[in-house]
Amino acid sequence: MNNSKLITFVAIVIPVLAVMLAARFLGFPVFERIVTLLFINMILVLGLQAFMGNSGILSFAHIAFMGIGAYTSSLFTIPLQMRGMVLPDLYPVLKPILLSPYAAIAVGAVAAMLVAALVAYPLMRLSDAAAVITSFALLVVMHTIMVNWSEVTNGPRTLFGVPKATTIYLAAAGAILAALIALYFKESRTGLLLRAVRDDEVAAGAMGANLSLLRWKGFVLSALLAGFAGGLWAHFITSYQPSAFYLKETFVILGMLVIGGAGTVSGAVLGTFVVTFAFEALRATENALNSSSVFPWQLVGLTEIVLALAMIAVLALRPGGLIEAEEFGATWRKLRRRG
User: Fold this and answer.
1) Model pTM?
2) Coil, strand or helix: which one is 240?
3) CA atoms within 13 Å, Cβ hemisphere of 178
4) Is the Cα torsion angle 99, 104, 110, 112 positive or negative in sign?
5) Angle CA 334–336–339, to nearest 5
6) How many other CB atoms are there within 10 angstroms of residue 103's CB atom?
7) Least buried of 6, 34, 143, 270, by fewest C-beta within 10 Å?
8) Which InterPro entries has this protein been placed in (predicted)?
9) Which residues, including other chains, have CB under 8 Å from residue 130's CB and lie 6 or more apart?
């Protein structure tokens, strides 16, 4: 790891550890819950950055791989005595399998990666609008499967009974690991070639870059991190429905990446912090206004509207996001030379 990358990594780790310790020692359960979800979102956003930031292709399907990780890890950890009630139609071969939550989270991440590896390669030949539309179609297909595969997901109903295993420490460790993976992937040979394809597809192809294979590698890595985040999330929330992995969550995750800066790992991390805390502040404001009856009507959708307006403003004023091109380490070294 060179100095610039090391500084970037340290600059990411410090705020992660700082908010983790603050959440633990302040002793507010709500704040600790928000911080834990922030770390899980950070893994998701970094996974999306690994593909979207390096390939330049918007992917709507990312959140569906989170769902695969969540459902797979939950399937193997719901206590045996509860499975008959939670999943009455579960396949007999799966009924006796019980894993520890940590092993199940890893299995969920691998399952998401394998599904991505199987379905994605033909799609990686596409570019521009066609690639975006097919990724949206993939999200719709996987959401429909989650809603209707009652034997495994309990259909559109709530899946409950998932043991709580994700702590703030585990989520923080996962976020730091995801940041390390994203940084290494960005500077790896695959990451460099992927960005060369993004910047000039024809020229990179003429130099021998295998466009489909490079995108496929990025997409599979992205799905692995999304599946990992899904397993952590499922073992933190403990009950959920397929609607948790659809358009609303996709919009929030995309908002974090776009506002922070899709082209950099630093931007992905900054966007996650900014949007998470802004989102929670807006939600609290909305609840306070409704409970105090300031308006004669119920205020609904304030958080989503403000996030959408923020995305529009960033795209209009700073299309590359708050941190467009340089990682924290490169900026730090430049400032030191000037100083």
Assistant:
1) 0.92
2) strand
3) 34
4) positive
5) 115
6) 12
7) 6
8) ABC_transp_permease, LivM-like
9) none
pLDDT in tens, 283-329: 888 888 888 777 777 777 778 888 888 888 888 888 888 888 788 87
Q: What are the tokens at 333?
A: 């070294």
111 CB-near residues (< 8 Å, 6+ apart): 68, 69, 72, 227
In 10 A of CB 131, how many CB atoms? 19
CA-to-CA distance for 1 and 62, rounded, in angstroms? 28
Instruction: Provide the token pair at 30.
Output: 């709500």
CB 265 within 8 A of CB 183: yes
Query: CA-to-CA distance for 68 and 152, rounded, in angstroms?
Result: 11
User: Which of 140, 171, 183, 153 shows the shortest CA–CA distance to 276?
Assistant: 171
Q: Which among 10, 2, 38 has a CA at the least distance from the CA of 328?
A: 10
The first and second tokens of residue 181, run together, are 């993976």
